[in-house]
Amino acid sequence: MPIAFAVALWPTYRDRRTRLVIAAILGGAILQFLQIALFTRSHTGWYWYYLLPVVAGALATANLLSLTNRRFSRLTPPLRILVLNIVLLSIAATITIVTVNIRWNSQPQAPKYMKALEFVTKRDIQETAFLVSDGPGYFAYSRPSNGVIAADMLTGNVSVITEMKISGNAMRYLFDTASDIDKPIRYVIFMGGSWLIPSTNLQCVIYNDPLQLPSTRNIIGQVHLGYPIETDLDNRFIVWDASNPRFDVSADDPLCQVETEA
Hints:
Largest sheet: 5 strands, mixed
Number of strands: 8
Strand content: 5-15%
Radius of gyration: 25 Å
Shape: elongated
Number of helices: 8
Order of helices and strands: HHHHHEHEHHEEEEEE
Oligomer: single chain
Distance between the termini: 38 Å
Structural class: alpha/beta
């Protein structure tokens, strides 16, 4: 929508510098769209990559307001106040109606996310790190002092991901790296997803390559943690105490077997 809006207003960009700036931002937004469409693997959404489209839409809006202001200044003062009040009230009413409608009709959060918040807040966990299969934002929001490592690596550094993949055991690499920066991984948490998955007996956690489609099941790491300290299989929520990890296991180890449909 912001991109279409900015393109639709192209004839109104009379200033050459304005055209150049918006053209550059629009070009970046379109190239970003193509990159997402052609090269990203797994689910994604436009709102994950909002910066360039929103900037383009904001500049287009500013340009439109500038043009409107020239005509607005020709009105008499009483008429200006009337028009301004009508516009402001209309905007406020629209925002209120849309917000109330969204909140009224929004679906409740999945139980696993509520369980994640409850787990962190009830135990008052501070100054530690979590390795999570999904929903890292819930842990970061509940206790900002904690470190959170998301298994999908959407926010991971490229060089770190490369080192992790060639390390021989990505799980050992993540644990060692976290300890090196004084944020040792204390809990491993499964909340769905296809990259970080539990073994059939729930004693091991297996890590599939986050840069490949989950269906390829390219295992890059595993760790034995013992039985979980909290389990709710109906809501796909499992927590392991990771204070005593064992890395002397392989994907072929009977302890780390995974069901085909997992």
